TrEMBL record:
Pfam families: Chorismate_bind (PF00425)
Record SUPFAM superfamilies: ADC synthase (SSF56322)
InterPro entries: ADC_synthase (IPR005801), Chorismate_C (IPR015890)
Ranges of residues in domain Chorismate-utilising enzyme C-terminal: 205-458
Entry superkingdom: Bacteria
Protein's recorded name: Chorismate-binding protein
Length: 472
């Protein structure tokens, strides 16, 4: 068993906050450790209670992987080519897929935690980075969940960088000279886009929503979320770190992330929404629902804000989402601890504005963060209500493969602290394409073309920013 080595360095770049330093350090570590980066590369930055933190992981020491064969979930803790722990769970077709997934992971984590801490000597702070895919079509989902405990891990605060590693051959390369090679980088060459494809096309998207609205008019369904995709063809490859630098606002008050496993597909995002975070016994969710576009012109922005806070459709959509979170959290929180700390406040992202609520509660004894996820995921903000009926409608009216889009990405520790961003405002990046995703909550009062425009506004960080996406 290797001994965990840790070392801290003062932040030598006081002009860079933790998010910026993380984004700048990621490509440095990728170049210094290309073999590790080919196994796994993760960056997760969050802004919680006024404090910015960035986490970077390179390489794969342990992996928590769940695969799906149609009838079973197969859970494994892997180390290199070896399987350390394993469990198989039969699925019940009468129950929601995600609920069964997280219930199974909750039990499995209770096995792997003592194994890793007692037999491998890992501390409670040891951090798994990763997430899960949104199973709109679970029958086609072969790997619904993956988390990686990196070989090299770095936690960045505003004041310092702390590295953790189990291996001497990696550890010797971590020193002040490596950190000194970090610089805030501004890309000098704009990415060139040679083709754009809307999936589905606008007319088809509107037609699908007309059909969906005809169904909703005759039912008691509250909301269904339908996503779409814009596929951009790249003239030449772009690195995930550069793409993040192009689209992330500075300073960024929310999440930004890059996740790439061995298949070379990267998921890059700047999500504004906390799905769930856990700090000791405290659970926090921050649903966003209800949208209006933003503007750099003060009067227009104020008018859009007023429209957002008074529009009955937007208010209905938000109350549906927040109300479902309250119902779900009540099942995993101690009686009397639920607290609606914010209700229908406005979060302004510049390109769009959202209604936001913040709900907290104390988790019941004996439950971990995955028990809580079993209760709250998928939220109405990315799925709808009622859940079972909405899943069936999404499968009929949505024409994309979501992948990690509208899943969750973030981290959990062996001590059961966790922070997961809802995976929105994100893209899938391959060598030749950028796949941009957005969704919209459809209620009976929705206007199909306005929903198209809303999804277009949500995609703006990737389709229209200070660096022009040149279409040849």
């Amino acid at each position: 068993m290797n001994t965990l080595k840790q070392s801290s360095y003062a932040n030598p770049y006081p002009n860079l906050n933790a998010h910026e330093l993380g984004a700048a350090l990621l490509p440095v570590l990728e170049r210094r450790f290309p073999k590790l980066a080919s196994e796994f590369m993760g960056l997760f930055s969050h802004h919680t209670d006024g404090t910015r933190t960035s986490m970077i992981g390179i390489g794969s020491e342990f992996r928590l992987v769940v695969t799906h064969d149609g009838a079973h979930l197969n859970l494994q803790l892997q180390h290199e080519q070896a399987v350390c722990l394993a469990e198989t769970v039969a699925l019940d077709v009468s129950q929601l897929f995600h609920e069964q997934l997280f219930d199974a992971v909750a039990r499995f984590v209770e096995q792997l935690r003592p194994w890793l801490m007692e037999k491998q000597g890992l501390p409670a702070s040891a951090t798994f980075l990763g997430g899960w895919r949104c199973a709109t079509h679970p029958e086609y989902l072969s790997e619904p969940l993956i988390f990686t405990l990196p070989r090299l891990f770095c936690r960045i605060s505003e004041e310092q960088l702390t590295f953790s590693c189990l291996h001497e051959d990696i550890w010797y390369a971590i020193d002040e000279r490596l950190i000194a090679s970090v610089a805030d980088f501004t890309p000098t060459a704009n990415p060139r886009i040679t083709k754009r494809e809307d999936i589905p096309a606008c007319a088809d998207y509107v037609d699908d929503l007309v059909g969906l609205l005809n169904e909703l008019a005759c039912t008691d369904a509250d909301k269904v979320v339908i996503g779409r995709e814009v596929k951009l063809t790249l003239e030449r490859p772009i690195s995930p770190a550069v793409l993040l630098r192009l689209v992330a606002p500075r300073p960024n008050p929310h999440y930004e992330f890059v996740f790439r496993w061995a298949d070379q597909v990267a998921w890059v995002g700047i999500s504004p929404e906390t799905l769930l975070r856990k700090e000791k016994e405290l659970l926090v969710v921050e649903p966003l629902a209800g949208t209006r576009k933003g503007s750099s012109e003060g009067e227009k922005n104020a008018r859009y804000r007023q429209e957002l806070t008074s529009d009955l459709k937007e208010l209905e959509e938000h109350e549906t989402a927040a109300g479902l979170f309250l119902e779900q959290l009540a099942t995993v929180c101690e009686n009397g601890t639920l607290d609606l700390r914010e209700s229908r406040s406005v979060i302004d992202l510049g390109y769009v504005q959202h209604l936001k609520s913040l709900i907290s509660g104390t988790v019941k004894a004996g439950l971990n963060v995955f028990n809580a996820l079993a209760a709250v995921y998928p939220p109405a903000t990315i799925w709808g209500k009622p859940l079972a009926v909405c899943g069936e409608r999404i499968r009929r009216y949505e024409q994309i493969d979501r992948g990690f889009f509208t899943g969750g990405l973030g981290y959990f520790t062996l001590g059961d602290d966790a922070n997961f961003a809802l995976a929105i405002r994100m893209v899938k990046l391959t060598q030749s394409h950028i796949h941009v995703y957005a969704g919209s909550g459809i209620v009976k009062a929705s206007d199909p073309y306005r929903e198209w425009l809303e999804t277009t506004n949500k995609m703006k960080p990737y389709l229209a920013n200070e660096y022009v996406w040149n279409i040849s």
